[in-house]
Amino acid sequence: MLGGTFDPIHHGHLRSAIELREALGLDHVRLIPCHQPPHREAPGVSSEERLAMLEVAIAGEPGLMADDRELFREGPSYSADTLASLRAEYGPQARLVMAIGHDAFLKLGEWHAAERLFDDAHVVVIERPDHDAPLPPALEALIAGREVETVQALMARPGGQLLRLSLPTRMAISATFVRERLALGDSVRYLLPETVIRHIEAHDLYRPQSE
Ligand code: ATP
Questions:
Q1: How many domains is the chain partitioned into structurally?
Q2: pLDDT tens across 99-149, in order?
Q3: Reduced to 3 states, what is the DSSP secondary structure of residue 160?
Q4: Measured between alpha carbons, how far is 81 from 77 in angstroms, rounded to an integer?
Q5: Which atom of ligand 1 is nearest to the CA of 171?
Q6: Can you tell me whether residue 120 is helix, strand or coil?
Q7: Can you give the CATH number for the domain in which 16 is found?
């Protein structure tokens, strides 16, 4: 699972998903748009539009799947609930992984039912540029005794462990940067797929602010 607001999806997400799948030998990576983000402001673009951009971005890539399960849940979209539903679907023996970028990882100790995340899945932290910040005490406590050093050790169990992973491509692209450029009417070419750019244009999303 790679969850996110995907507001909008960009090449940083997509390369991470592909490289994560390869590095861990996963059957597939489910990209799961967050319907109501618990820890940040509501995105300016609807969940349905963010899902639609995700779908056009991954069309034709068999290893990646768009998963809309959070759109059907009321209230804040807690990852603990999403992982519980994936665990129920895949059964107790399947190896499940929740991947998060290092920026999101730094806040993991504050997440709703953070301990439950490890009941249902492994957590894999994708290192991003600028990831040297010290870990907050709540996070240190949460991950104590869970960290493993290798993919092999991680995949020996269905869940419960933590691995920090450096993927081959580390792109300093963020959705914030993409939104800022779109709001100014600046080019976002090569930051995200052309199909997504066309979707944004066709649906008048992230319009430049009028003066
Ligand atoms: P924003 O700028 O709006 O905060 P974002 O670009 O960080 O957005 P999210 O949808 O919040 O994107 O991210 C979903 C997940 O993907 C998070 O775990 C985030 O850390 C990770 N992620 C985002 N951008 C990258 C990137 N360039 N490389 C690796 N992981 C990324």
A1: 1
A2: 999 888 999 999 999 999 999 999 999 986 666 778 899 999 999 999 999
A3: coil
A4: 8
A5: 27
A6: helix
A7: 3.40.50.620
Measured in angstroms, how far is the CA atom of residue 199 from the centroid of ligand 1?
20
List Cβ neighbours of 170 (8 Å cut-off, separation of 6 or more).
Answer: 127, 128, 129
Q: How far is the CA of 2 from the centre of ligand 1 (A)?
A: 10
Is the residue at 198 inside a domain?
no
How far apart are the C-alpha atoms of 45 and 47, rounded to whole Å?
7
The answer to whether residue 195 is domain-embedded is no
Supply the range of the domain harboring residue 123: 2-168
Query: Considering only CA atoms, which residue is closest to atom 21 of ligand 1?
Result: 101
- Region of 76 (left: φ > 0; alpha: ψ -120 to 50; beta: rest) is beta
Q: Buried (b) or exposed (e) across 97-106, using 16+ Cβ within 10 A?
A: bbbbbbebbb
- The whole-model pTM stands at 0.93
Report which ligand 1 atom has the smallest distance to the Cα of 43: 3
Asked if the structure places residue 207 within a domain, the reply is no
Q: Would you say residue 182 lies in a domain?
A: no
pLDDT tens digits for range 25-76 = 999 999 999 999 887 778 889 999 999 999 999 999 999 999 999 999 989 9
Q: What distance lies between CA 34 and its chain's CA centroid? A: 9
Alpha-carbon span 46 to 182, nearest angstrom: 17
Q: Give residue ranges with CB within 6 A of ligand 1.
A: 4-7, 12-13, 16, 100-101, 103-104, 126, 128, 171, 173-176
What is the CB-side half-sphere exposure of residue 186 using CA atoms within 13 A? 9
